[in-house]
Amino acid sequence: MSDENGVPETDGPAPEERATAEPAGNGPGRGPWARITGAEGDWRSLVLVPVLAVFTALVIGAIIIAVSDIELLSLWGEDAGEAFRQTLARIGDAYGGLFTGAFGSVRGISETLTWATPLILAGLSVAIGFRAGLFNIGAEGQMLMGGMLALVVGFQLNLTIWLHLPLALLGGFIGGAIWGGIPGWLRARTGAHEVITTIMFNWIAIRFVDYALKTPFIQREGRPDRISKDVLESARLPKLLEWIDPQLRLNAGIFVALLAAWAVYWLLFRSTIGFEFRAVGANPDGAKYAGMNVTRSYIMVMAIAGGLGGLAGSTQILSVLGNATPGFSANLGFDAIALALLGRSHPFGVVLAGILFGALRAGGQQMQVASDVGIDLILVIQALIVVFIAAPELIKAIFRVKAVKGTEQITRGWAT
Predict the structure, then answer these.
(1) Which of the residues in the chain have pLDDT under 70?
(2) Which range marks the domain in which residue 75 is found?
(3) Is there a domain that residue 88 lies in?
(4) pTM of the predicted model, to two decimals?
(5) Which is it for the CA torsion 30, 35, 36, 39, positive or negative?
(6) To 10 degrees, what angle do helices 376-390 and 49-67 make?
(7) How many independent structural domains does the chain possess?
């Protein structure tokens, strides 16, 4: 049918309505899952594949436990039934000890969340870079530089806790932001690749900390070794479970990490600037053609990523340690890369991945005591998780996971 002007009538929405109507179907970013999480893709790719990757890593870890005992292997030729029983018992003792050490007691939960705090913050540092198409390998150096500035604020100023602690955390954020922003500026202005520059900045930060800890301004008086002055109590993150046991280390840093995760989520999926970050990460040329400032986005992303890394180092200095020694970051900045991959570069995913890696750290000692399995197995499991997360198609092929219709795509980068 046609109207009085001869224009065919349709039952569909007007052009302006069609432009703003939500697409139908279950494609990326179109279903209820995407509306809730802000993530692109179906739940199988975003949740099921990482879970199966962790499960596969644990299965392979069990195989390694089974074949690493020479005496147990020799028993298979004599009494297969007894060998099988002992093998299952050894694997059960190892993973039972791992779980008990991580979640089996108040102390275990405290240690898990204590380790998870800097891991979440450092993982967010890498994840926000992935979202913008940048590979921030500099979380380790950013942790060190942010932690050192938080340290100086922590022992140099003498204020009430309501001013001192926020200023120390802010100092850590600023220190990391500067250390991350410089590689971002170099990438934006000169084209220097952030992988190379952030690796070099890691080493600069490591050696700078070694030097700074020997200066009279920072080194503790009367100590010949590299150890800093103690942070004042007014700059310490309060312990949360001290009323149960003064030895429990869980502190308010976990709230800082969770708040940072929410802030990054809001920034990426609920703000205009976050949309620009993701657009630049998906296609910088297209984003530039659309009028977005790619140069500014690169600098801002790396500065925010560095600030998050600096917060991770600050929570170590202002809570667990109370002072600085060489390597106080405990290589958590390098674990952050695995966290961001496991969390699919989504803030909520990074939180869950941080708790998992915190559990592996906390439960590793108990696993070694319970089964005589070397703690290095934890590193093997972490490496396997990274391998399987980096190859999602392999996991889908092993477990025959089918993608939801309309979501099949070739990976565009680290965030997909």
Answers:
(1) 1-45, 403-416
(2) 43-236+250-399
(3) yes
(4) 0.86
(5) positive
(6) 140
(7) 1
